[in-house]
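Putative phosphatidylethanolamine-binding protein
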Amino acid sequence: MTKRTFLFVVLTVSGTMIAVSKAEDPAVAKAFTDNEIVPDVLSKAPGALVKVSYTSAGAEVNLGNELTPTQVKDEPSVSWEAEPGALYTLVMTDPDAPTRAEPKMREWKHWVVINVPGSDVAAGETVAEYIGSAPPQDSGLHRYVFLVYKQSRGRMRWSEPKLSNRNPNRAKFRVNEFAAKYHLGSPIAGNFYQATYDDYVPQVYATLTETK
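Predicted structure tokens:
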């Protein structure tokens, strides 16, 4: 059985003390550290788990399990414990481009959705459309990391170009710099899987037709 640590926050509402508990899952921090996402991507692991399901393939993301590019080709269903009325940002990033041993293109941005009300990703604003895993042949396993940030300053104003799923100009992304720029703080939840090349990858490359 997984042990969980509960943090208790005391709020004062009209003079009444209310205790609100929030569960932390130590398995998340352990997996992020053991797989070196800390420090390759983050300085500190998130405390909670993001649920990620590739329903059409019958596949679930589970803290570093191996999936195939074929299984993850379609946009997944993603959910997390959200506070009522809060907005969130969802990011999916690959720190192992082109290889984990020589990540000269670290990170590759796969998906970014901002202004997500609660965990209703479909109601958020997609600023980088989803592209599934496409690790180069003979590049070994890549880590694909999902991170959720709470937007503490409310609705985010996006002034940068939005990327379609045909746009390959996503290399050298830095999620830490992105979070700092938009005042997102540390991620509240995360998950990741690993994948290596399969024969679906050339089909992904064939769709990346935009040059700007």
